[in-house]
Amino acid sequence: MKICFIGSCGHSHKAFREMQKCPDALFVGAAPGSEHESPEDLESYDIKIYDSYRRMIEETQPDVAVVSPVFGLTGQIVKYCAERKIDVFCEKPVASDLSELEALEKTVKESGIHFSAMHFLRFAPSFYAAGKLVRDGGIGQIKLVNAQKSYKYGTRPHWYTDRSLYTGTIPWVGIHAIDWIYYFTRKRFLTIDALHFGNPEMAALCQFELEDNVIASVNVDYYRPVTASTHGDDRIRVVGTEGVIEVFSDRYVLINKDGETVNYPTEAPMLACDYLFGREEITAEEIFMLTKVALSARESADRKQKIRID
Amino acid sequence: MKICFIGSCGHSHKAFREMQKCPDALFVGAAPGSEHESPEDLESYDIKIYDSYRRMIEETQPDVAVVSPVFGLTGQIVKYCAERKIDVFCEKPVASDLSELEALEKTVKESGIHFSAMHFLRFAPSFYAAGKLVRDGGIGQIKLVNAQKSYKYGTRPHWYTDRSLYTGTIPWVGIHAIDWIYYFTRKRFLTIDALHFGNPEMAALCQFELEDNVIASVNVDYYRPVTASTHGDDRIRVVGTEGVIEVFSDRYVLINKDGETVNYPTEAPMLACDYLFGREEITAEEIFMLTKVALSARESADRKQKIRID
Predict the structure, then answer these.
(1) Does B196 contact A at CB distance below 8 Å?
(2) Are residues A130 and A104 in the same domain?
(3) Contacts (Cβ under 8 Å, ≥6 apart) of B132
(4) Which residue of B has its CA nearest to A239?
(5) Same domain, yes or no, for A92 and A63?
(6) Are residues B34 and B167 in the same domain?
(7) pLDDT tens for each residue of A59-75
(8) Average pLDDT score over chain B
(9) Do both A138 and A176 map to the same domain?
(10) A36 and A111: one domain?
């Protein structure tokens, strides 16, 4: 299975490391997604470097492209690959605005390619295990969900202040929290109201009405102090009729009729590796839906208006 | 100083216990606020019981009335007292809807009475100390706030399902979280979007835009399992440009440039006692504003519409 890498932004190196564990994987090349990337970033792949992904594709005829350019360009490059029937494993958000997303979904579906995206955080072991427990009825009927992403800002590329290249903090970071909400509840998103401030948006809030009278919120920020013990403070708290579960980066705390327990799961599927094996841990349908919710939330925050999702 | 008690719902017994520490306090009587209360509840005051608060007021000519009836009747009884120039220390919410609130604010101001309300949770030692630290600049400029109220439902009176008597979960419980947001930030509330479900509302979410680009959220639920170690899981998390502080029921965790510290404050003013001494830990202006925000949030949730606060 011939695999090429387009771009080295985001989590493409995580995909690379996972795919190295797949015996059939043959890495045929890497190329920048655009002039916004520095060639040094590609060298760490330790595979043949091309300066043009178009030429790389032509020369190597890959089966799979791992697409991870400057975030705002993902959709264009996915489209380029889909039109050439190359399977795609790409960064999220898979499109930079709602109209690009709609066109891309159509292109991908018509192409028949195997398509997935780097929703890696659903497969962080604590979230993955807790989500399974909740979906299996472990806290009764779900009523309320709060999800959190808090990161250190650190040093980030200059293009984070260019919306057309960065896409925004809700689509780039908040989408993971939106993904968790869906993964835990499996409920449709009905309405969104969101707020964000800064460039890049340094803090954001989203509030969702889901089907079956479930309500959910997301808070995102880039203000985690440099002194904090971990890069991120990821959380989800799910309140049900029979218990409350709260997931932190490395553990979940469950309170139910039997009392309180703390669990540190360590096992979860490897998304990128499983993708190569043809397993669908997350479907293309889900990815397009989650991207739509995230981009709609960004629009809600931009317009400061509540939005109904159709 | 002659003090009477009207009603025994809510936190009137906490007010009673605090006021007992005030040497000038003379407890002249207690009476139900309405037929919805059971006489046994009044007996625990261990003072003379009247069956009518009107007759009690006429006979005892009190200086202060502690007003804590079925929640929806608070405003009417406060009005009755204010019109007789009796100082009032009452339960929150101080009014049951926005029009009653507007009229009550006018009546109270014109009466010149000393007026305060049972926003006790601002004075929970961990919240009080953390709020002071944040207002003194301990985490830089505030950007994002999340506040939580989670309670066991336990056994509650039948009138919790009657909106006209209960007022609703956002005005009754959520108002404490709204109070914290204001106490920590001192920012004006500009817009509200809220959601709630159930009768009584068993879960609620509020999202606020505050002035100076500060964003805030509240989550409330009554689903805390009976097995949990405490009745409530109260929290506020405040994210600033120079640090993050998170308050739990009994402690606060601060992460700033010096690292992470956990603190267990034990000291805070006694609101009811200080009220008798004429000290203003919370002003009447603040109480009316906070009640307006809470009642507006309930309206937003009822209508499922975002509301601008004028």
Answers:
(1) yes
(2) no
(3) none
(4) B223
(5) yes
(6) no
(7) 999 999 999 999 999 99
(8) 96
(9) yes
(10) yes
CB contact under 8 A, A213 and B197: yes
Determine the Cα–Cα distance for residues A145 and A132; give it in Å rounded to an integer: 15
* Residue range of the domain that includes A72: 2-118
Contacts of B198 in chain A (CB under 8 A): 213
What pLDDT does residue B38 have?
Answer: 81
A260 in reach of chain B (CB within 8 A): yes
SS3 A288: helix
- Residue A205 phi, psi (nearest 5): -130, 140
Beta-carbon separation of B225 and A203 below 8 A: no
Whether B256 and A150 lie within 8 Å, measured CB to CB: no
Q: Indicate if B48 and B91 belong to the same structural domain.
A: yes
* Whole-number pLDDT of residue B107: 98
Mark whether A182 and A296 lie in a shared domain: yes
Number of domains present in the structure of chain B:
2
Please list the pLDDT of chain A residue by residue as tens digits (310 residues).
999 999 999 999 999 999 999 999 999 999 999 999 987 888 888 899 999 999 999 999 999 999 999 999 999 999 999 999 999 999 999 999 999 999 999 999 999 999 999 999 999 999 999 999 999 999 999 999 999 999 999 999 999 999 999 999 999 999 999 999 999 999 999 999 999 999 999 999 999 999 999 999 999 999 999 999 999 999 999 999 999 999 999 999 999 999 999 999 999 999 999 999 988 889 999 999 999 999 999 999 999 999 999 8
Q: Sorting pLDDT into bands at 50, 70 and 90, what band is B40?
A: confident
Q: Show residues of chain B in contact with A238, CB under 8 Å.
A: none
Whether B195 and A203 lie within 8 Å, measured CB to CB: no
Contact B144/A260, CB-based, under 8 Å? no
Structure-token pair, residue A119: 């929703």
Looking at the structure, do residues B143 and B233 belong to the same domain, yes or no? yes
Final residue of a structural domain among B118, B151, B178? B118
Flag whether residue B204 sits within 8 Å of chain A, measured between CB atoms: yes
Q: Do A150 and B213 touch (CB under 8 A)?
A: no
Residue that is written with structure tokens 């009642």 in the block: B295
- In whole angstroms, what is the distance from residue B257 CA to residue B237 CA? 17
Q: Write the pLDDT tens digit of every residue in B285-302.
A: 999 999 999 999 999 999
Domain boundary among B118, B144, B165: B118
Q: Measured between CB atoms, does A262 come within 8 Å of chain B? A: no
Residue A304 sits at the chain B interface (C-beta within 8 Å): yes
3-class DSSP assignment, residue B255: strand
pLDDT in tens, A286-296: 999 999 999 99
Give the nearest partner residue to B255 out of A193, A228, A260, using CB atoms: A228
Q: Which ipTM score applies to this complex? A: 0.96
What residues form DSSP beta bridges with A244?
A239, A255
CATH of the domain at B63: 3.40.50.720
Stated pTM of the model: 0.96
**Which CATH number goes with the domain that contains A206?**
3.30.360.10
C-beta pairs of A12-18 under 8 Å, 24+ apart in sequence: A12/A66, A12/A68, A12/A91, A12/A118, A13/A44, A13/A45, A14/A118, A14/A120, A14/A272, A15/A66, A15/A68, A15/A89, A15/A118, A15/A272, A16/A45, A16/A66, A18/A270, A18/A271, A18/A272, A18/A273
Those of residues 207-226 in A touching chain B at CB distance below 8 A are 207, 209, 213, 215-217, 219, 221, 223-226
Q: H helices of A84-145, where? A: 98-111, 125-135
